[in-house]
Amino acid sequence: MKIKQENCTGCKKCLKYCNQEAIYLQDNVAMIDRNRCVECGVCKRSNTCPRDCIQSEIKGVYESTKQLLSDPTVTNKVTGVPGRGTEEAKTNDITHRYSEKVFGICIDMGRPGVGTNLRDVETVAMALAKAGLKFAGPSETPLSAMMTDLATGKIKEDFLDLRVLSIIIEGTIERSQLKNILCAIKSVETKIDTVFSLGIIAKSDEFSENQIRSAAKRANITEPIRGKANMGLGFKTEEVCV
């Protein structure tokens, strides 16, 4: 994003719309901190500027990457999914990412008002890799396309200082190894400067709930009290055509 400074009157209306506090006044003219801006586009879409000074200016791979992970109106060309570019678990009835033999893990890092840099994302990803997480592939999640090695969770060096609104670390783990993942997450939670939420994904059966509760208890993590259910009502188009 950029501001046409020659037209700006310093009215400050745009400042309250930036959830990363990247817009500030200098000499009574609005400026954008390029390092803090995540290219979410909220300031532009709000139509708050009376003189239409706010312009979208996406140049190069780094700004386009920030936009893809921060602007829910933009679709990822590789995964074909808008928002953060991943189906995650909510369409497992047609993606079949998660079988009865594994737990899916999704770590939702950063949120509006907070954001995250990819260096912190790498810290968590590498800890999870050591604990046995198998990351989803680049065709499924944008983060994997930025990794140099899916076995270690290492992110390309020139992406580490990018700041995005939020991003999801996704993968699978053998059910017996869930405690290792939970302990790995606890080991890095004080080493990062952002917020995150943990999602554990399971195909429902007579064992999954008890396995999750047991692993959480052994890792000294508060038992989960809420979740989302995929009802399994989705079908690919070719499966229902007659």
Please describe what this structure looks like.
With about 240 residues, the chain is α+β, with helices and mostly antiparallel strands. It contains eight helices and twelve strands. It has helices at about 40-45, 60-70, 90-95, 120-130, 140-145, 180-190, 210-220, 235-240, and strands at about 1-5, 25, 30, 55, 100-110, 115, 135, 145-150, 155, 165, 165-175, 195-200. The strands form five sheets. It has a four-stranded antiparallel beta sheet with strand order 7-11-5-12, with helices on one face. A two-stranded antiparallel sheet has the order 1-4. A hairpin with a 2-residue loop joins strand 2 and strand 3 (about 30). Helix 4 packs antiparallel against helix 6 (about 180-190). The longest helix has 13 residues, at about 120-130. The N and C termini lie far apart (about 50 Å). The mean pLDDT is about 90.
